[in-house]
Structures are given as structure tokens and as C-alpha cells.
Write a structure and sequence with these properties.
This protein is of the alpha/beta class and 277 residues long. It is built from 9 helices and 10 strands. The strands form 2 sheets. It has a 7-stranded parallel β-sheet with strand order 1-10-9-6-2-3-5. Strands 4-8-7 form a 3-stranded antiparallel β-sheet. The longest helix has 19 residues.
Length: 277
């Protein structure tokens, strides 16, 4: 487990985007060998996506041979709704890069058989060869994707009822009208993300500070599902200074001394050589 601490949100977003870019370039994807990337939605990854778009427009990266799998989608929200995760991904990322739409996978919360949709999603990931790098964000209560507190840490893609705290937190996207916020979602499981070869979790803002503390300074706990990634052999937490407010001083000093003194490219090479640590 590694913790990369940047001064503020924009720098954390840039670091994460460079890491994704470098991982794809290092992989050397082609028609016979796609790079498979897991992606989140929400306010935290927005800056990262904007940087990746910049890299694409400058010719630094292509997504032609990249397949993506998003973490989640609301149940019952029309795909064209401005707050659906389909809309979020296409408006904020996919339509600005050269990815083949057939290679951008997002769960469909409007199908008749939701369970079958979840099973098919797991199958598509398996057929793609698994996820090389799964990028995720977390909620203030430490949930990753829609794996709410109390979720199984070996869970797979499934239908999930959203916690009241999550509904309240998401109300800002629906005019602060709780009645308009979906109460169910389709989500990859903790186990689904754990199967990825590498996981990068973005945590920014003081409102996520206690969740970061629970994620790295306390033990694995199904009430804080992000804590499961302590046990993944290649997890990188990328955060800003505000998110470290609940961490012990020696924790911050340790990780700053070991990660922040090297560039993203060097860190990428370091992790590729130390994947078992």
C-alpha cells in the first residue's frame, strides 16, 4: 500500500492522470492486447479526466486500444438524464477522447433483469482479461463504488440499496430534493475491484479525512469498505493535504518521505518492480 500526498486537488488530479497515462503507455496496448481500465464518477475524478483529455489532445496518449468498465450506475434513472453516470462519463470524458464506444462499458440500471445485467458485467470483465488498473473514489463514510458500510468485502457486481447518508450526499446533484435521488444502484463489488491487478483510490477534501484515516491507519473493517484495499498487493491512495487532517503526523511524514520525493514516472517504475510489497 502506498499513499501519495499532494498539496491540493489540482496537483492530485494531475498526478493521477499522469499515472494512468504512463501505465497505458508502458502496457503498449494494441488490437490484440487492450489495456483494461476501471473508472469512477463523481466530483473527485473530474480533474483527473480533464487532464487525461489534455494529454489526448496534445497527442501524448490514445485510448483507441483501451477498454473501460465503470464502477456503478443508478437504478431507474434514464440513461439520458443529466445525473446518470452514462451522461457523466460521456459528457466529461468519453466524447472528448478516441475511445471506441463499444469499449466503454457502463452498467445499465434500466434493464428488466438487473441480476442478469450484473452477472453479464462480471463476465465481460473476465472476457476482457480482467482489469489492469481500477481507479476509484470514496464517500465520506468510506464506501467505494456503492459498496455501502456493512457490505461484504468479497462482494461481486450486484444491486445495492443506498444508505441514507449516500442519498443525502447525492441530493446536491438533484436540486437538494431527496425525493428525486435514486435509492438503488448497480455496483461492482469490493471483490470485483480487488481482482484488478492494481488499484488507485483518489481521496480529496477535508470531508474525506476521517475516511482516509479509517482506510489506512485502522484495520480492515466491512463498515469502511475502502479499508479492504490494505490487503491488495498494489494499492495507491492519492490524496491532497486536506484529506490528511485526521492522520497521525508520523504517518504523513513517512509517506511524504517515501513517495512524494519521486516523480510519477519513477513511482510507476518503482511499483512495477515491487508489486508484491
Amino acid at each position: 500500500m502506498r499513499l501519495v500526498i499532494l498539496d491540493e486537488y489540482d496537483l492530485a488530479s494531475e498526478w493521477a492522470a499522469k499515472y494512468i497515462r504512463n501505465r497505458i503507455i508502458q502496457f503498449q496496448p494494441c488490437a490484440e492486447r487492450y489495456f483494461t481500465l476501471g473508472l469512477p464518477t463523481g466530483s473527485t475524478p473530474y480533474g483527473c479526466y480533464q487532464k487525461l483529455i489534455e494529454y489526448y489532445r496534445s497527442g501524448d496518449i490514445s485510448f483507441k486500444y483501451v477498454k473501460t468498465f465503470n464502477m456503478d450506475e443508478y437504478v431507474g434513472l434514464p440513461r439520458a438524464h443529466p445525473e446518470s453516470y452514462h451522461s457523466y462519463m460521456w459528457n466529461n470524458f468519453f466524447k472528448h477522447i478516441d475511445i471506441d464506444p463499444a469499449n466503454a462499458h457502463i452498467l445499465d440500471g434500466n434493464v428488466e433483469d438487473l441480476e442478469a445485467e450484473c452477472q453479464a458485467y462480471e463476465q465481460k470483465i473476465a472476457e476482457a482479461g480482467g482489469i489492469e488498473l481500477f481507479v476509484g473514489g470514496i464517500g465520506p463514510d468510506g464506501h467505494i463504488a456503492f459498496n455501502e458500510p456493512g457490505s461484504s468485502l468479497v462482494s461481486r457486481t450486484r444491486v445495492k440499496t443506498l444508505a441514507k447518508d449516500t442519498i443525502v450526499a447525492n441530493a446536491r446533484f438533484f436540486g437538494n430534493d431527496l425525493s428525486k435521488v435514486p435509492t438503488m444502484a448497480l455496483t461492482v463489488g469490493v471483490g470485483t475491484v480487488m481482482d484488478a491487478k492494481e488499484v488507485m483510490i483518489l481521496i480529496t477534501g477535508a470531508h474525506k479525512a476521517f475516511a482516509l484515516y479509517k482506510a489506512i491507519e485502522e484495520g480492515v473493517n466491512h463498515m469502511w469498505t475502502v479499508s479492504a484495499f490494505q490487503q491488495h498487493p498494489r494499492t495507491i491512495f492519492v490524496c491532497d493535504e486536506d484529506a490528511t487532517l485526521e492522520l497521525r503526523v508520523k504517518t504523513v511524514k513517512y509517506f511524504k518521505g517515501n513517495s512524494n520525493n519521486i516523480c510519477c514516472h519513477c513511482f510507476l517504475l518503482w511499483t512495477s518492480r515491487n508489486c508484491s510489497q
